[in-house]
């Protein structure tokens, strides 16, 4: 692929700064790459300074590699530029415009973790992302073409029907997941592509192939690519156009890979290239404290790195000048003056704060443009489809069918035909127990089916919300609607089996069966709502589990079956348990008409039945609404 790039360069088919070639963009008019400049970027968390006056420039058609030892601030730098975190003080522009929420939309950020829904295939994943993130002016056909183009360009044709996968179910390989992650961000045709450790976890040949693909993308599309990388091989290292070396949050070096060895040698650190990979060499130099103490001040004090930051704007600054500087022939005041006279926006580090630089401060003012590319309705529709496909695997797995049918058959056999014939007191006790158990079984299943949804989807929601893919309200509504039909299938099956095997009142009164089924559905949906509420309140597996068990056991004890004589001062607690409402409604339908001997209803009790049904519906709505409010208020996307 390197040869391809070189050949393309020779043939002149590669453009720098303009988007003549479309990299998997179908027939879409692509936007050119934009220059991303950042100056004196600082980042602090509490009292901990993480980035100190970091400056650099990503150029269209070029790849800037951000290197440095672990903990040097590479990811933090990308997070700041990608708008994931706010920097304490910095100045940045994109294409000459201040970096604001609006202009930052030209930037796509490929996170280090490959965060996707594991059960969707690669094609489904990309197509859903395209439908959510691409403007509605493009037809579905156009979006499909873009997705297919990217699949081809990133060499993933053979795995389009493969699921993304996770630890439990194998799917795409690590390298394929990385490519899927990149394709997902390329969909929006960004002017600047930021990538955090795109090669981490890949073997050397896959990492090299990926680096070449990124280089090809930058060159062919004229886009700006900036990536962090830990340990590039020598081959990879020389694919980069510029290297920004960070150490302890400071710029330790900024320059072209081809100049690195010479610059380090000028400082007295010559690299034996027959035995050393230059990338390893410079990283190891930084790890040696005495070397680090020389290298960083060398570049910072003399501002040699500023030359590289300015890039092509300083055409008269060549290697000889660099040698002059390194030999101490050119002194700092001359340097500063020279820069000032050459560029209208380029200043020595200490001058920036007081200057009228055209590089404006990071601005996070709200813009008036709509934040989303698609309407609420489109988002709702696409998210419902996606959530339905994803939910199918969770709600309707073979294991769950086996469990539900198995337990229902056991119950059916234990309570076989209990409701047939003459019902004595002992049968009444068995029927009430049977109905209470059906309520419990379905409620526990429904709650636990949905409990882990939000904690497990948290990362995907975070990522998608950060990239402005959709409104939270569209997501939440889609989730509620899509999982509703899925969530009632198994409880319905278990109710049918147990009800008919136990020979309950439906044999005499059809309405009793449909009424019981309806109450069971209400209960199931109510428990889904409770699960959503607990999931959003905790957003954590362990906490969700503990809270859910506590609440369910309390509801169970207060459901009316186990304790008949609650102390008077605790009577009010009976009204807390939804089991109490559903169970008494089912008892009403079981005993009201067919078994006059145990009839316990009167007109006022009928009214009670209706109000109990309404309370169940109210519970369902209230928990769902609170779940949404919690998600909106307390779980804002974060890095
Ligand atoms: N939220 C935070 N709170 C406290 N310290 C933080 C936070 N985020 C980052 N840091 C610290 O900032 C430093 C830089 O972290 P960062 O993740 O940017 O490094 P990195 O160069 O990307 O490391 P690596 O290569 O290991 O991923 C580290 O010392 C890290 O512990």
From TrEMBL:
The chain crosses the membrane at residues 395-415, 435-454, 475-502, 514-537, 544-563, 610-631. It holds the Pfam family ABC2_membrane. The keyword Magnesium does not apply. One of its GO terms (molecular function) is ABC-type transporter activity. It is found in: Membrane. Its main location: membrane. GO terms for cellular component: membrane. Keywords: ATP-binding, Membrane, Nucleotide-binding, Transmembrane, Transmembrane helix, Transport. It is a multi-pass membrane protein. Residues 36-273 form the ABC transporter domain. PROSITE patterns: ABC_TRANSPORTER_1 (PS00211), ABC_TRANSPORTER_2 (PS50893). InterPro entries: AAA+_ATPase, ABC2_TM, ABC_transporter-like_ATP-bd, ABC_transporter-like_CS, ABCG_transporters, P-loop_NTPase. The keyword S-adenosyl-L-methionine does not apply. SMART domains: AAA. PANTHER family: ABC TRANSPORTER G FAMILY MEMBER 28, EARLY GENE AT 23, ISOFORM C. Belongs to the ABC transporter superfamily. ABCG family. Eye pigment precursor importer (TC 3.A.1.204) subfamily. This is ABC transporter domain-containing protein.
